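Ticket #4471: structure output looks truncated?

Reporter: J.K.
Steps to reproduce: submitted the chain below (297 residues) through the standard prediction queue, then opened the result file.
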Amino acid sequence: MAFTITKAVIPAAGLGTRFLPATKAMPKEMLPVVDKPAIQYVVEEAVDAGLTDVLMITGRNKNALENHFDHVGELEATLERKGDTERLEKVNFSSELADMHYVRQGNPLGLGHAVLRAKMHVGNEPFAVLLGDDIIDARDVLLTRMIEVQGQREASVVALLEVDPSQTHLYGIATVEQTDEDDVVRITGMVEKPPPGEAPSNLAIIGRYVLTPDVFRILERTKPGKGGEIQLTDALQTMAEAPDVTGGVFGVVFRGRRYDTGDRADYIKAIVQLAVDREDLGQELRPWLKSFVATLD
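Returned output as attached by the reporter:
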Protein backbone atom coordinates (compact mmCIF):
# COMPACT_ATOMS: atom_id res chain seq x y z
CA MET A 1 0.00 0.00 0.00
CA ALA A 2 1.37 3.40 -0.98
CA PHE A 3 1.79 5.96 1.79
CA THR A 4 1.82 9.73 1.69
CA ILE A 5 5.29 10.45 3.05
CA THR A 6 5.38 13.31 5.55
CA LYS A 7 8.40 12.56 7.76
CA ALA A 8 12.01 13.54 7.23
CA VAL A 9 14.97 12.47 9.38
CA ILE A 10 18.08 14.66 9.41
CA PRO A 11 21.15 13.19 11.18
CA ALA A 12 23.05 16.10 12.75
CA ALA A 13 25.16 14.62 15.53
CA GLY A 14 28.60 14.87 13.90
CA LEU A 15 31.43 16.78 15.57
CA GLY A 16 32.50 18.72 12.48
CA THR A 17 36.19 18.15 13.17
CA ARG A 18 37.19 19.18 9.62
CA PHE A 19 36.07 22.72 10.42
CA LEU A 20 37.83 23.21 13.74
CA PRO A 21 38.25 25.62 15.42
CA ALA A 22 35.07 27.16 13.92
CA THR A 23 33.02 24.21 15.16
CA LYS A 24 34.54 24.08 18.65
CA ALA A 25 31.47 25.76 20.13
CA MET A 26 29.09 25.86 17.14
CA PRO A 27 27.49 22.93 15.29
CA LYS A 28 28.89 22.49 11.79
CA GLU A 29 25.30 22.46 10.53
CA MET A 30 25.01 26.10 11.62
CA LEU A 31 27.92 27.30 9.48
CA PRO A 32 26.51 29.96 7.15
CA VAL A 33 26.16 29.35 3.43
CA VAL A 34 25.80 32.93 2.18
CA ASP A 35 23.24 34.16 4.76
CA LYS A 36 21.52 30.98 5.97
CA PRO A 37 22.93 28.11 8.01
CA ALA A 38 23.55 24.99 5.94
CA ILE A 39 20.91 23.04 7.86
CA GLN A 40 18.16 25.45 6.84
CA TYR A 41 18.69 24.66 3.15
CA VAL A 42 18.14 20.99 3.99
CA VAL A 43 14.96 21.59 6.00
CA GLU A 44 13.62 23.86 3.24
CA GLU A 45 14.24 21.09 0.70
CA ALA A 46 12.28 18.62 2.82
CA VAL A 47 9.38 21.04 3.22
CA ASP A 48 9.33 21.86 -0.51
CA ALA A 49 8.91 18.11 -1.14
CA GLY A 50 5.88 17.99 1.16
CA LEU A 51 7.63 16.68 4.29
CA THR A 52 6.26 18.73 7.18
CA ASP A 53 7.37 16.54 10.11
CA VAL A 54 11.15 16.83 10.62
CA LEU A 55 13.17 14.86 13.17
CA MET A 56 16.78 15.86 13.80
CA ILE A 57 19.16 13.36 15.33
CA THR A 58 21.46 15.54 17.42
CA GLY A 59 24.26 15.25 19.95
CA ARG A 60 25.99 17.27 22.63
CA ASN A 61 26.47 21.01 22.05
CA LYS A 62 23.79 21.08 19.34
CA ASN A 63 21.35 23.39 21.13
CA ALA A 64 21.89 26.06 18.47
CA LEU A 65 19.99 23.87 16.00
CA GLU A 66 16.89 23.87 18.18
CA ASN A 67 17.23 27.59 18.86
CA HIS A 68 17.48 28.42 15.16
CA PHE A 69 14.15 26.77 14.33
CA ASP A 70 12.40 28.26 17.37
CA HIS A 71 10.94 31.72 17.94
CA VAL A 72 13.18 34.34 19.54
CA GLY A 73 10.76 36.75 21.15
CA GLU A 74 13.23 39.50 22.05
CA LEU A 75 14.78 39.60 18.57
CA GLU A 76 11.40 39.54 16.86
CA ALA A 77 10.09 42.33 19.08
CA THR A 78 13.17 44.46 18.38
CA LEU A 79 12.84 44.04 14.61
CA GLU A 80 9.11 44.80 14.76
CA ARG A 81 9.75 47.92 16.83
CA LYS A 82 12.28 49.12 14.24
CA GLY A 83 9.89 48.39 11.41
CA ASP A 84 12.45 46.03 9.84
CA THR A 85 9.84 43.81 8.24
CA GLU A 86 12.24 42.20 5.75
CA ARG A 87 14.52 40.75 8.42
CA LEU A 88 11.55 39.92 10.66
CA GLU A 89 10.04 37.83 7.87
CA LYS A 90 13.35 35.95 7.43
CA VAL A 91 13.59 35.24 11.16
CA ASN A 92 9.99 34.06 11.38
CA PHE A 93 10.33 31.95 8.23
CA SER A 94 12.86 29.59 9.82
CA SER A 95 10.74 29.36 12.98
CA GLU A 96 7.63 28.27 11.09
CA LEU A 97 9.12 26.01 8.40
CA ALA A 98 8.03 22.64 9.77
CA ASP A 99 6.95 20.66 12.80
CA MET A 100 10.42 20.15 14.29
CA HIS A 101 11.43 17.34 16.67
CA TYR A 102 14.78 16.40 18.20
CA VAL A 103 16.33 13.27 19.69
CA ARG A 104 19.89 12.64 20.87
CA GLN A 105 21.89 9.94 19.13
CA GLY A 106 23.83 9.10 22.28
CA ASN A 107 26.80 6.95 21.33
CA PRO A 108 28.24 8.03 17.94
CA LEU A 109 27.95 4.65 16.27
CA GLY A 110 27.50 5.72 12.67
CA LEU A 111 24.84 6.83 10.21
CA GLY A 112 22.94 3.55 10.45
CA HIS A 113 22.71 3.96 14.21
CA ALA A 114 21.51 7.57 13.82
CA VAL A 115 18.73 6.47 11.46
CA LEU A 116 17.76 3.68 13.85
CA ARG A 117 17.22 6.31 16.57
CA ALA A 118 14.28 7.57 14.48
CA LYS A 119 12.35 4.30 14.75
CA MET A 120 9.92 5.35 17.49
CA HIS A 121 9.13 8.65 15.79
CA VAL A 122 8.73 7.31 12.26
CA GLY A 123 6.70 4.21 13.05
CA ASN A 124 5.62 1.82 10.31
CA GLU A 125 5.69 4.08 7.26
CA PRO A 126 8.20 5.21 4.63
CA PHE A 127 10.29 8.26 5.41
CA ALA A 128 13.08 10.39 3.97
CA VAL A 129 16.63 10.81 5.26
CA LEU A 130 18.53 13.97 4.33
CA LEU A 131 22.20 14.44 5.19
CA GLY A 132 23.20 17.98 6.06
CA ASP A 133 26.51 17.99 4.14
CA ASP A 134 24.69 17.86 0.79
CA ILE A 135 22.76 20.90 -0.41
CA ILE A 136 20.60 20.28 -3.48
CA ASP A 137 19.84 23.35 -5.55
CA ALA A 138 16.20 24.35 -5.03
CA ARG A 139 15.84 24.80 -8.80
CA ASP A 140 16.52 21.09 -9.43
CA VAL A 141 14.11 18.28 -8.56
CA LEU A 142 15.44 15.32 -6.59
CA LEU A 143 13.59 14.49 -3.39
CA THR A 144 10.14 14.90 -4.98
CA ARG A 145 11.18 12.48 -7.72
CA MET A 146 12.53 10.00 -5.16
CA ILE A 147 9.25 10.08 -3.24
CA GLU A 148 7.38 9.48 -6.50
CA VAL A 149 9.56 6.47 -7.34
CA GLN A 150 9.14 5.07 -3.82
CA GLY A 151 5.37 5.21 -4.17
CA GLN A 152 5.44 3.57 -7.59
CA ARG A 153 7.90 0.79 -6.71
CA GLU A 154 7.07 0.41 -2.97
CA ALA A 155 10.79 0.05 -2.34
CA SER A 156 13.60 2.03 -0.77
CA VAL A 157 15.19 4.68 -2.99
CA VAL A 158 18.61 6.32 -2.82
CA ALA A 159 20.02 9.28 -4.74
CA LEU A 160 22.90 8.57 -7.11
CA LEU A 161 25.35 10.94 -8.75
CA GLU A 162 27.85 10.18 -11.49
CA VAL A 163 31.34 11.03 -10.23
CA ASP A 164 34.77 10.92 -11.79
CA PRO A 165 36.23 7.39 -11.43
CA SER A 166 39.19 8.88 -9.54
CA GLN A 167 36.78 10.01 -6.79
CA THR A 168 34.87 6.77 -6.21
CA HIS A 169 36.92 5.89 -3.11
CA LEU A 170 35.32 8.86 -1.36
CA TYR A 171 31.74 7.56 -1.63
CA GLY A 172 29.47 4.60 -1.23
CA ILE A 173 29.23 3.16 -4.75
CA ALA A 174 26.32 1.23 -6.27
CA THR A 175 26.15 -1.70 -8.68
CA VAL A 176 23.05 -1.21 -10.81
CA GLU A 177 20.75 -2.63 -13.46
CA GLN A 178 18.80 -0.45 -15.88
CA THR A 179 15.01 -0.15 -15.66
CA ASP A 180 12.39 1.13 -18.10
CA GLU A 181 12.98 4.68 -16.83
CA ASP A 182 16.03 6.69 -17.85
CA ASP A 183 16.68 8.16 -14.40
CA VAL A 184 15.84 5.07 -12.33
CA VAL A 185 18.06 2.03 -11.78
CA ARG A 186 17.71 -1.10 -9.68
CA ILE A 187 20.53 -1.41 -7.15
CA THR A 188 21.95 -4.90 -6.80
CA GLY A 189 24.93 -4.11 -4.60
CA MET A 190 26.69 -1.36 -2.67
CA VAL A 191 30.15 -0.92 -1.25
CA GLU A 192 31.27 1.81 1.14
CA LYS A 193 34.33 3.76 -0.09
CA PRO A 194 35.95 1.03 -2.23
CA PRO A 195 39.73 1.14 -2.69
CA PRO A 196 40.89 3.10 -5.77
CA GLY A 197 40.33 1.11 -8.93
CA GLU A 198 37.93 -1.39 -7.36
CA ALA A 199 34.62 0.47 -7.62
CA PRO A 200 31.83 -1.45 -9.43
CA SER A 201 30.60 1.75 -11.14
CA ASN A 202 30.94 5.52 -10.93
CA LEU A 203 27.47 6.00 -9.42
CA ALA A 204 27.97 7.46 -5.96
CA ILE A 205 25.35 7.39 -3.24
CA ILE A 206 24.71 10.95 -2.07
CA GLY A 207 22.92 12.15 1.01
CA ARG A 208 19.25 11.58 0.13
CA TYR A 209 17.27 8.44 0.90
CA VAL A 210 13.58 7.50 0.91
CA LEU A 211 13.34 4.33 2.98
CA THR A 212 10.72 1.77 3.89
CA PRO A 213 10.37 0.93 7.59
CA ASP A 214 11.98 -2.47 6.90
CA VAL A 215 15.29 -0.65 7.30
CA PHE A 216 14.81 -0.44 11.08
CA ARG A 217 14.47 -4.20 11.47
CA ILE A 218 17.60 -4.73 9.39
CA LEU A 219 19.63 -2.01 11.14
CA GLU A 220 18.84 -3.63 14.49
CA ARG A 221 20.82 -6.69 13.44
CA THR A 222 23.46 -5.00 11.29
CA LYS A 223 26.89 -5.45 12.84
CA PRO A 224 29.43 -2.60 12.89
CA GLY A 225 31.29 -2.36 9.59
CA LYS A 226 33.92 0.00 8.22
CA GLY A 227 35.24 2.32 10.94
CA GLY A 228 33.55 0.26 13.66
CA GLU A 229 30.26 1.99 12.87
CA ILE A 230 26.81 0.70 11.90
CA GLN A 231 26.70 1.60 8.22
CA LEU A 232 23.42 2.47 6.53
CA THR A 233 25.03 1.20 3.31
CA ASP A 234 25.33 -2.30 4.83
CA ALA A 235 21.64 -2.34 5.72
CA LEU A 236 20.68 -1.18 2.23
CA GLN A 237 22.89 -3.91 0.77
CA THR A 238 20.90 -6.49 2.76
CA MET A 239 17.65 -4.97 1.49
CA ALA A 240 18.89 -5.00 -2.10
CA GLU A 241 19.71 -8.71 -1.78
CA ALA A 242 16.18 -9.58 -0.59
CA PRO A 243 13.77 -7.72 -2.94
CA ASP A 244 10.97 -10.25 -2.36
CA VAL A 245 10.99 -9.38 1.34
CA THR A 246 11.94 -5.70 1.42
CA GLY A 247 10.88 -4.47 -2.02
CA GLY A 248 14.52 -3.99 -2.93
CA VAL A 249 16.42 -0.76 -3.46
CA PHE A 250 16.24 1.58 -6.44
CA GLY A 251 18.34 4.60 -7.33
CA VAL A 252 17.35 7.92 -8.85
CA VAL A 253 20.25 9.28 -10.92
CA PHE A 254 20.51 13.00 -10.14
CA ARG A 255 21.84 15.25 -12.89
CA GLY A 256 21.27 18.60 -11.23
CA ARG A 257 23.28 20.92 -9.02
CA ARG A 258 24.64 19.63 -5.71
CA TYR A 259 26.83 21.52 -3.28
CA ASP A 260 29.05 19.67 -0.81
CA THR A 261 29.53 21.53 2.47
CA GLY A 262 31.32 18.70 4.27
CA ASP A 263 34.80 19.69 3.07
CA ARG A 264 36.43 23.10 3.59
CA ALA A 265 37.27 23.77 -0.05
CA ASP A 266 33.91 22.46 -1.28
CA TYR A 267 32.14 24.53 1.37
CA ILE A 268 33.76 27.70 -0.01
CA LYS A 269 32.86 26.66 -3.56
CA ALA A 270 29.24 26.14 -2.49
CA ILE A 271 29.03 29.65 -1.06
CA VAL A 272 30.45 31.18 -4.25
CA GLN A 273 28.21 29.12 -6.54
CA LEU A 274 25.04 29.95 -4.65
CA ALA A 275 25.94 33.61 -4.17
CA VAL A 276 26.63 34.37 -7.83
CA ASP A 277 23.15 33.10 -8.75
CA ARG A 278 21.42 35.34 -6.23
CA GLU A 279 19.59 38.37 -7.60
CA ASP A 280 20.75 40.52 -4.69
CA LEU A 281 24.42 39.47 -4.87
CA GLY A 282 25.24 38.08 -8.29
CA GLN A 283 25.33 41.36 -10.17
CA GLU A 284 28.08 42.63 -7.89
CA LEU A 285 29.93 39.34 -7.42
CA ARG A 286 30.23 38.08 -11.01
CA PRO A 287 32.37 40.93 -12.42
CA TRP A 288 34.48 40.98 -9.25
CA LEU A 289 35.08 37.22 -9.53
CA LYS A 290 36.13 37.53 -13.17
CA SER A 291 38.63 40.26 -12.38
CA PHE A 292 39.93 38.39 -9.33
CA VAL A 293 40.40 35.15 -11.27
CA ALA A 294 42.34 37.07 -13.94
CA THR A 295 44.90 38.08 -11.30
CA LEU A 296 45.56 34.44 -10.34
CA ASP A 297 47.56 33.82 -13.51
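Triage note (M.O.): checked the attachment and the full C-alpha coordinate line is present. The mean pLDDT is 91.
Status: closed, working as intended.
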